[in-house]
Amino acid sequence: MSGRIPILYLAPWITHGGSDKNTIDWFRWIDRERFAPYLITTQPSANPLIDQAAPFAEEVWVLPDLMPAEQMPSFIFDFISSRRIEVIHVMNSRLGFDLLPDLTALPEPPAVVVQLHVEEVDKSGYVRYVTTRYGNLVDRFSISNEHVAEAVRGYGVPAEKIEVVYTGVDAEDEFSPDHGTPAEELDRGRLQILYGARITDQKDPLLMVDVAAGLRDRGVQFQIQVVGDGDLEDEVRAKIAKLRLDDEIVLHPPAPGLRDWYAACDALLLTSKFEGIPVVVFEAMAMGLPIVAPALPGIREMLPEADDGLIEDRGSADAYVEVLAGLADQERCQAVGAELRERARSHFSVQEMAKLHGDIYLDLTAGRERRDDRPEPLPEPLRFVDRAVLEQPLVSVLIPHYNQARFLRECLESVRAQTYPNVEVVVVDDASTETDAAAMLDEIGGWDGVEVLRLAANGGPSRARNTGLERCRGRYILPVDSDNLLLPDAIAGLVTQLVSAGEEVGFIYPNLDFFGNRDEYHEAPPYNLYTLLHANFCDTCSLIDRDVFDAGLRYHEGIHLGHEDWEFALRLATHGVRGEPAHGPTIRYRKWGFNRSDSVDHVGDDFAGGFLAEQKLFAGREAEIKAREMPALSVVALGRSEESESAALLAALARQSCIDCELVADVVGTAAPGGPALRRFPAGTPAETLLRGLDTARGSFVALTAGTGAELLEHPEFVEQVLRRFEAHGESVDGIVLADAAGNFDFCAIDEIPDPGAAHSVIWRRASESNLPFGLLADPATPIGSIVRLLAGAGCEVEWRHLSAALSSPAAGPADGSWIELPAAADLGVGGRPPAPLLPGAGEYTVPRWKLTPTWVAPLSTVAIRYRERIGERRLISPGNPPQHFELEHFVGGLRSTGVQGTKKLISVDGTFKALSREEWRAVPAHAVEIGYLEEAPLPGLDSVALALHRGTGQHVLVSLPEDPILHEVDVIESLGFADPFPLRPRNVEVQRSRLGLVGLVKAVDVAGRRHRYGIGEVPAGEVVLELGALAETGLQGRIPAWIVDGFLITDRYRPPRRKPAAYAALRWSVEPMTGWGDLGPTSARLKVIASRSVQSARSRRSLDGVSPGPQGDPDGWLFESPRTGLLPLYAAHHPINGDQLLTRDPGDAVHLGYLDTQLLGFMAPAAPLTDTLLDRHATSIPWARRSGHVPQTA
Amino acid sequence: MTDATRQPEASPWERLGAELPNDHGERRILLVGPARDGAAVGLGPDKTTGWDPAGGESPPEGPFDLVLCAAAIQADPHPANLLLALWETMAVGGTLLLHSRVLSDPAQSTYARFGAARAGTGDTEWLPGRLALRWTVETNGFDVERWLDAGSSDPRGEGEAYLVATRTERTPALVLATPIPVDGPSQKGDGS
Q1: How far apart are alpha carbons A35 and A110 in whole angstroms?
Q2: % of chain B exceeding 70 in pLDDT
C-alpha cells in the first residue's frame, strides 16, 4: 500500500442497477498502482454483485451486516484514521452524504468526491439533496452526463467543482461482440429486440407493448425479449394477453448481466419516461446493437446527433415502430450497430472513466503530506545466555539512602543475614540532612563488605543508584531501598531463579510484604509487557543481571516525583529484556509516613500518560505488543502449512488491518515485524494438534479453523471484522460459525444454516467457556462441529456466517463420542476480564457533537418525540423533555431542524399536524408550534411520518410507519413526509443462531382432546402454538433430563399430577362464566361455555386416575439446571379440573389462565430449532381456560 | 541410521575447525559425530581420533585434550549420556567444542523438544533451546566458557549453536545411565 493514495468508496450497496455497475467498473479499472481503493456499503442489501468488485478492493466492509447503524459513523471515522484515507468517494450513500459536516471536525479531512448519476423527475434523488445541503463541503462532483451537470450547476455548485465523467463501458473485453454467447436460441428469422429494463412506471413498459402491436400491424417479423421484472409486470402481461402478443413479447426474469442477451438480439429498445445515463445503452452500443430510445437528455448525449434511433416524441408508439421497422433490414441494422460500437470505443470507455477519476484524486491530493507512522526501530535485544547455573557469583546489594538512618541499620542487618554466601553492599547517601545520618554512615562504613559513597548534593534515588552502580562488582545487582528489609533467603532464591530463567529474562521482581502502616502481602502478577504499559508491577527491589548495566542502561535521573522503577522496567523492555515475578516473598516493604510512591499516586500525576508517554519508549507499538502478550484473537489452524504455502500465509497475516491477533499454526517462517504475532507449534495427530494449538493460544477470542488459516486471513479485514462483530454484539453473542455457503459474500450473515459439515471454522469468546459445565471439550475427528454443538448446547449464542473455504475434508460432522478435554483459556487479564481489543483507529477521530446524543443523528436534526399522558390518553409531540404528567411513548423520527430545499415544515396547529411546502412557510399561524422539517422524498432508510386519527380518543396524532406501536389504534389519514427513524436502522444485525446441539420444545393445542401437547425435537399433534425454547440434546453435568410422555413433559423430579377433581371444584369451575366473568361476553356465549365445562368436568372425573406418567427410555432432551444470562425459564402448571399441563416461560400465564401449582422446571436456550420462531404463530382458542379464548368463535 | 542420511552440512565442522589452535602440540583430539574425518577440520587422519556414537561403538580410550563434537548430540536419544561419555573420555581441563541444532526462539530457550528428525528417517531429534543446551553441558561436568555462535535462526525457528566448554572435575549431576524399561518402572505395592 505504501505510496498509494487510499480512497474510501462509500456506496449504499452493490446490486443490479446501473450505478452499481459503474461501481464495479470503478473498482475494476481504477489504477491500483497509484490508488488503494476500499469499499464500504451503508444500507441493508443482499449485495448480489459485491463479489464482482471485492477482488479489486483492498477491503470490503458491508456495515449493515456487521453493526447497527448507530455505530457506523464512528466506525467510518476509525476507518479513515487507520487507513489514512485521503479521498472519500461517495456514490449514493446517504450516510456518506450526511457525514460530510462531521468530517470537517477532523484535523486532516480527506478530500470529498461525490458522484451523481441521475436527477429524478421530481428531484427526489440525491442531486438536490447533496448539492443544496452540503455542496460547499464537496471538493469535486463527478457527474455522469452533461444533463445532470447542468442541474448541479443550477443548484449553485461552481463550475470548477464539476467534472463530467461518463460511466462508460468495457467494449474491448466484457462487452465485445466476440465474447458474448447468445443467451437463448432465438428465431433468427425475426428481428430480435431486447427490452432490458425493469417493468416499472419509469420505464413505461406499456408503451413497449403498444410498439409491439404497431410492429405486428406493420407486418414486421420480430420478437421483443423483455429481461427484467417489476411492479407493473401483471399489468404488462394482461395487456400482452389482451392484444394477443404472446408470441411477439417474451418475458424473462432479470439477469445479473445482459451481455449474452445483447449477443442474442439485434437491437435495443427503451421507452423510459426519464433516465440518467442508462448503462444498457452503453453496453448495447459496445455490443454493436442499434438503439431505439426516447431522446431524453442523457441518452441524447450518448448517441450521435443524427442517430435515427432517438425518438423525439417519447410517447408515440408509431415513432418507435417506424425506426424498428427500418432495422428489419439486416444490412442496415448491422451498419448502424457497427457505427455505435465504434462510438462506444472512442467516446465512452471505462478505462477513460477510471483515468479521469484518477486525475481528480491526484489533483485533490497534490501537496498533501503523508505521515510515516512507522515506529522507530528498537535496539538490538539483549539475550542472557551466559549465566552459569552451578556457581554462586557475587551479588551487589545497592542501597540508596536519604534521611532514613533510623531504618538503615535494620536494612543492612537483613542483608548480612542472607543465606547466600557471596554478597557485597554499596550504600549511596544522597546528601542526607538529618543529624543521625552521618554517624550511621560512619559506623556502617567500617562494616565488612559494606562500601559507603557520599554524594555532595541531593540528586534523587535514580542518580544515587546510578552512582553506586559504578562501584558494584557483582554478577547480579539487587537495589534495596534503605527502609526495606530482605528476608534471609531472598538473595539465594532470587539468584537461583534468575540463573534458571529464560534468555529474555533480565530481572526478577519481588512480591511485596508490607509492614508498618500497612499489613498485607501483594503477589506480583506474571510479567506482561502490555499490562506494564498501563500499570507498574516491577518494584525497584529486583535482582538484575549485570549485563543490563554493562549494555549502558541506567535509571532515569530526570524523575524526581515518579516511578523510576516503572520507567526502568519499560526501558529494559525496549531492549527485549523481560522480568519474572519472584517465586515467593523476598522483601518486607516498609510503609511509614507518606513516601514518594504514595505522593505520586496521591497528587494524581498521570505518570503513564505524562512522563512515560513523553519518553516514547513504545510509541506506535501498542497493538504490536498486545498481539504478542495478550492478543484479542488467536487464529488456531488445525491444518499444517507446507513450506511452499507458508510464505503466502504469513504475508496474509501481515496484511491484516487489525494487528491485535496471533496466528497459532504449524507453519514455516516468521511473522513480519510490527504486525500480528505468530506462535508456532508442531502438528501431530488430530487430538495432539487440537490440544497443542489451544494450549498455545492466548487470545481472548479463538478462531479455530480446520484449514491452514489462509482461508481466513486471505481477507485483510478478517480479524477486524470478527472483533468488530463481537464488539457490536456486546456480550450477547458467544460465538460465530463460519461455513461455506456459496452465493453469499464473505463474512456475511446467512439466512439458512447449511449442512453442518460445511462449517470450517468456529470463533468463540473464551470467557464463555465458563458456561460449559465440563469445560471445553471436543471430538478431534470433528473438532469444529463438536465445539459448535458444545457451545450451542450449553445455551451460548452462536451465529452463522459465510466464508468461502475449499477444504478437502469436512470439519464438522456428527461427533463420534471420543471427546477430549481441551486446555482452559490462559490468563484473560485483570479479574478475568480481557482488555478491550485494539481496533484500528478506534477513537482517534471523533466529533464533539456525537457526545450530545446517545446515538448518531443526521446534521441539523432534531428528534420528534411523542409523549402520552400518564393518566389519560392525550398525546403531544415535543423535541425535548416531556411536560409534567406525560411519558415517552415513541420516537417519531429525526427531523431536520432547519428548512432546506426538499423539506416540508411540520407544524402542530389547532389539534392537528400539517406539513407545509416551502411557499407556505412564512404563512404559519402565530399560535402554531413548529416541530421540524420533514423530507419530501422517500430516500432510502427513511420512515413515513403520517397524520392519523386515534380511534379511542378522536385525537389527531403523529405516527411513523411502519413500526409505530400505536398503529393498530389509529386510522392513518395522510403521509406528511419522511424522517429518519430514531435510532437509525438497522438497529441489530439479523443473524441465524446455531441450533446444533439443541432440540426444540414445541407447544401445541389438541382442540379435540381439550389439552396441550408438547414435543421435544418433534412437532406434536395438534395446532402448533409456538416453540417455547430449546433443550440440550446431550446430558452433561448441571442438566435435567426431560421426557415427553403422551404429550406431557416430565423430568426426573417433576411429574404432572393427574388427580381426579373434587366435585365442588368441578362445579365451581363449570359455572364460573356466570359467577366470575363479570360482564365479559354475552350471556348466550357464557351459557355455552358452562355447558361445555360441565361435560368436560364430568369426563375428567371419570378419566383422571391419579397416576402420573413416568419416564420411558432415554431422555428426549435436557433442561439447564441453573439460570444464566440469555437462558429462558420453563415453568409447568396443571389445570385443576381436566389435568391439562401448561408449560410457559411466564409464570403469570398460569395464574391468568387458571392453572395451579406453578413450578420452575429448569432453563432453556432461546432458540427455535423446529419452527424457527419463538413467537406465537397465531392465536389458538383454549376453551378450557378461564380468561383467554373463553368466548366461542360463534358467539 | 546411516551416515549418508545424517551427513551434516560442512559448516559445523568448518566452524569448529576454525577454533582449533594453530599448534596442537601433543594434544589428543577426538572428533565426535558423523563424517568425523580429520580432514573435515583441516587435520590429517593421524592427528585425530573419530567416534560416531550412533554407530554403537564404545567411546575411544582417552584421555583427550580436545574434543570437537558436531551434529551428534542432537541425534542422540540420550544427550546427557553422550556428554557423560565425553566427560569420561576427556582430560580434566580439556576443551570441548560443541555444535548442536537448537530452538532459536528466545521464548523457548529453557525448553527442549524431542521430535521426528527433519530428515524424515523416522528417528527422533533432540532440539534444545540455547539455555537448555548450556545447562545440559554444565550439569554434565563442563564449564561453558563462551558461545562461538548462538544467534542464527532459520524459518522453522531452529538454528545452529556452537560453544566452548572446559571439562571440570565436577561429577556430572545429570546422569541418565539407565534408560527406563520399555514396560515401565515397577509398581510400588507398599503404598509408599
Answers
A1: 14
A2: 82
Nearest residue of chain A to residue B142 (CA atoms): A390
Task: Tell me which residue in A381, A390, A682 faces B115 most closely, judged by beta carbons.
Answer: A682
Give the whole-angstrom CA distance, residue A1156 versus residue A1165. 25
pLDDT tens for A833-851 read: 788 999 999 988 888 888 8
Place of cell 428465431: A187
- Does residue B177 belong to the interface with chain A, where contact is any CB pair within 8 Å? no
List C-alpha distances in Å: B52 to B2, B68, B75. 11, 12, 11
What's the CA gap between A470 and A1184, in Å, rounded? Answer: 95
**pLDDT for A141-178, tens place per residue?**
999 999 899 999 999 999 999 999 999 999 999 999 98
Identity of residue A181: T
Residue type, B1: M
3-state secondary structure of A525: coil
Axis-axis angle for helices B130-138, B79-89 (nearest 10): 40
pLDDT tier for residue A334 given thresholds of 50, 70 and 90: very high
Q: Is the model more confident about A1194 or about A417?
A: A417
User: CA nearest A40: which of A109, A81, A91?
Assistant: A91
Write the residue in A381, A503, A669 that is nearest to B155 by C-beta. Answer: A669
Q: Which residues are within 8 A (CB) of A120 and not within 5 positions of it... i.e. 6 or more apart?
A: A127, A274, A937
Q: Do A501 and B110 touch (CB under 8 A)?
A: yes
Q: Which of B64, B131, B135 has the alpha carbon at shortest distance from B103? A: B131
Residue B16 C-alpha cell reads as: 569448529
Interface test with B, best of A382, A387, A389 (most B CBs within 10 A): A389
What's the CA angle centered on A606, arms A605 and A611, to 5 degrees? Answer: 100
Q: How far apart are CA A915 and CA A976, in angstroms?
A: 6
Cβ atoms of B106 and B77 closer than 8 Å: no
What A152-155 contacts at long range (C-beta under 8 Å, 24+ apart), as own/partner pairs, is A152/A116, A152/A127, A155/A127, A155/A128, A155/A131, A155/A901
B192-to-A389, A561, A874, B187, B189 alpha-carbon distances in Å: 33, 59, 86, 11, 8
- Quote the minimal CA–CA distance from A503 to chain B in Å: 6
The closest of A703, A693, A697, A636 to A825, measured between CA atoms, is: A697
At residue A886's C-alpha, the angle toward residues A885 and A889, to 5°, is 155
> How confident is the model at residue B187, as a pLDDT?
41
Determine the number of helices (DSSP H) and then strands (DSSP E) in chain A.
33, 50
Task: Read off the pLDDT of residues B81-109 as tens digits, 9 standing for 90 and up.
Answer: 899 999 999 999 999 999 999 998 888 89
Instruction: Annotate A74-139 with DSSP letters as a single string.
Output: HHHHHHHHHTT--EEEEES-HHHHHTHHHHTTSSSPPEEEEEE----TTS-SHHHHHHHHHGGG-S
- B180 Cβ neighbours under 8 A, 6+ residues apart: none
* CA-based torsion, A666, A701, A807, A818: positive or negative: positive
Distance separating alpha carbons of residues A514 and A516, to the nearest angstrom: 7
DSSP structural state of residue A195: E
- What pLDDT is attached to residue A1156? 83
Cis amide bond preceding A983, omega within 30: yes
Nearest to A668 among B139, B155, B173 (CB): B155
Q: Which tens digit of pLDDT belongs to each residue from A700-732? A: 999 999 999 999 999 999 999 999 999 987 777
C-alpha dist (Å) from residue A717 to A24, A55, A1143: 20, 13, 46
ipTM: 0.83
Rounded CA Rg of chain A: 38
Q: What distances in angstroms separate CA A311 from CA A27, A274, A294, A568, one per listed residue? A: 34, 13, 4, 83
What percent of chain A is helix, strand and coil (3-state, nearest 5)? 30, 25, 45
